[in-house]
Design goal:
The chain contains six helices and six strands; from the N terminus they run ααββαβαβαββα. By secondary structure, the protein is α/β, with parallel strands linked by helices. The termini are far apart.
Length: 186
């Protein structure tokens, strides 16, 4: 009886993996699809290189994608663009512009891919250690999804701090100013 139960379990596991691979998508796609509706402002999605550290803050969840970083980034940004409630604030490592192709072959091509993917999106750059600390601190209270890629070039991670798409920062500032002034709409 136990052998039959184990056999059935194995069949179910293999069948579920076959279904996931059927449309060319992997587990990380489904995880993103599952979590995106739950995420909100103050959450993060990070698309990181293969040497990014495994963080142990309670809210940080790391998933190995088995794919290259530009591809994962494109797909995550597309999902966010189709979201009704989220927009990303994009952070890059401040060290990236200083890494040379001589020291790390392929970094120039990566920077070009990144420029094409991000297009006209505003970006901010902070030192890598500052970003890691910010993520660690945020992970104490909020969920962070880390999608680890196969890219083996340093300082190439892309940090997406999620914000509310339908309530821009200017609206929040106006609201706070009105509250300070005691101005309620009629």
């Amino acid at each position: 009886m136990r052998k039959i139960a184990i056999s059935i379990s194995l069949v179910l596991i293999f069948a579920s993996h076959a279904l996931l691979a059927q449309d060319g998508r992997t587990d990380w796609h489904y995880k993103l699809d599952q979590e995106l509706p739950l995420l909100g402002h103050r959450n993060w999605i990070m698309i990181v290189d293969s040497a990014y550290p495994f963080q142990v803050s309670p809210g940080v969840e790391t998933i190995e994608t088995g794919e290259d970083l530009p591809r994962v980034l494109r797909q995550v940004l597309a999902a966010l663009d189709h979201s009704i409630h989220l927009t990303p604030n994009v952070y890059l490592d401040a060290e990236l512009p200083y890494v040379t192709d001589q020291a790390v072959p392929g970094v120039n091509a990566y920077r070009q891919h990144l420029k094409e993917i991000l297009q006209d999106r505003p970006t901010k750059s902070l030192p890598h250690e500052t970003l890691i600390k910010q993520v660690s601190d945020t992970g104490q209270a909020f969920h962070i999804l880390v999608l680890k890629t196969t890219l083996a070039i340093p300082y190439t991670s892309v940090f997406l701090q999620l914000d509310c798409k339908y309530w821009p920062p200017q609206a929040e500032q106006q609201l706070r100013q009105a509250m300070r002034n005691g101005e309620r709409p009629q």
